Amino acid sequence: MSNRGHVLLVAGSRSARSGDLADALRHRGFDVSAPPSLADALREIDGGSADAVVIGPDVDHDRALHDCRQVSTRSEVPVILITADAGRETLDAATRAGAFSVLPASSDLSAVDLALDRAVEHSALRREVERLEQAIRDRPGFGALIGSSPPMQQLYDVLERAAQSDVSVLLTGESGTGKELAAREIHRHSRRADGPFVAVNLAAVPDGLLESELFGHARGAFTDARSARRGLFAEAHRGTLFLDEIGELSLPLQPKLLRALQERTVRPVGSDREIEVDVRIITATNRDLDAMVADGRFRQDLYYRLAVVQIETPPLRNRGADILTLAQHFLAAAAARSDRHLGISNAAARSLLRYRWPGNVRELENVIERAVALSHGDRIGLQDLPQRVRGITPEPRPDPRQPPLPPADDLVPMHVIEARYIRRVLDHTDGNKAQAARILGFDRKTLYRKIRLYGLSEE
Ligand SMILES: Nc1ncnc2c1ncn2[C@@H]1O[C@H](COP(=O)(O)OP(=O)(O)O)[C@@H](O)[C@H]1O
Ligand SMILES: [Mg+2]
Known about the structure:
- By secondary structure, the protein is an alpha/beta fold.
- The protein has four domains: 6-137, Rossmann fold; 147-314, Rossmann fold (3-Layer(aba) Sandwich); 315-391, Helicase, Ruva Protein, domain 3; 393-459, Homeodomain-like (Arc Repressor Mutant, subunit A), CATH 1.10.10.60.
- It has 20 helices and 16 strands.
- The chain has helices spanning 14-18, 20-27, 38-47, 61-71, 88-96, 109-138, 150-164, 179-188, 207-215, 232-235, 254-263, 289-294, 300-306, 322-337, 346-354, 360-374, 387-390, 414-428, 433-440, 444-453; strands at 6-10, 31-33, 52-55, 79-83, 101-104, 141-142, 145-146, 169-172, 197-201, 239-244, 265-266, 275-276, 279-285, 309-312, 343-344, 379-380.
- The chain is flat, with a radius of gyration of 34 Å.
- Bound molecules: adenosine-5'-diphosphate and magnesium ion.
- Residues 179-180, 244 line the site of magnesium ion (MG).
């Protein structure tokens, strides 16, 4: 019979411990242990292996119950009392003291069996809940943001503090570093969390439409305005408005945005009515707004207004092992969509860790999705990664007669340049070697030799 759970039988006398009940429960598929003393039983409970405890009628119930509950404060083990005195009062007292169930000594085996079944199930649920709680506590991230590297821990701290206040936040950082996710997490952790989060990418809205998009318009304000429109500020009332790519805001619109922020009102296009709005503004850009201010392309007063708090999302290449945590996350998501189980080979993991990720998390997400689509086995291998990510492995052995050049980004040995360039051409020809050889001015044999030498082959 299958194992129905580990039952601890606490009985006073040896005969009770080795007697009918223990045997009968074993026979019914429970794994029964019957320690010789209450102290031994408590040790076992403390070890966490017991799913349920049965206390026999010849034991001091009050004390046994009390002690069991003391040692199992963390995950309460259900305790079943079997009592010779089945009076109402005894039953009530035991239940109040925390017994999971109380059975008269005259109960037949199936009643004990049933109570144990429920107790074991209770324990299993309890463990599952604890496991999930632990998983949530250990989760390496902040809301939807994943990663536990020091730069990310710092980011979470700053986001948390920004969420406590209501000031304007400017998020800066390279493209794909999670600026929009960060904006959402600020909102979700703020007192506006129950209000709307409205996001708009200023680069995606044609300049002529942006004003009415943001502030709304009156009916008939312009040719196409057959009906009035509220605008995003009004939609974000009591919530957060996220203006992505704020660096793209045209000079004529900049003072209008500034005015809305200062006055906390907007005026729809074609209307002379001011509408009060209560909106928290978060903006993001991957451009250097400081430089734009210096060049006169961005108003300084607006910049100050937007960047009351400025938060930088760190590039992926500085996040160490987060790269693999994120890769696993995207892998699990993509694998689930295609109903597969996939891992990452060591060689592929090494490449992911070495690559510079100019497109950051967005690029990693794409690379993993592509790899899942390409891979045949149950592991993402080197061959499933794009050439640029694989890098040059192995590095060609340096010529012992030549001292190696110092490693500098723009100062590398010729063979590195050659290897990179060949890789670039191969990428361009989609791996077509005949075509690549023509472009490079090599004969086929030379190209094959160099591909082997630089480790550029698909395998
Ligand atoms: N720390 C992170 N954890 C999980 N996913 C992330 C993280 N950072 C970015 N992403 C994902 O990467 C993609 C790009 O993020 P996004 O916030 O749009 O970047 P940005 O606005 O900086 O260009 C999105 O799909 C986002 O869900
Ligand atoms: Mg973005």
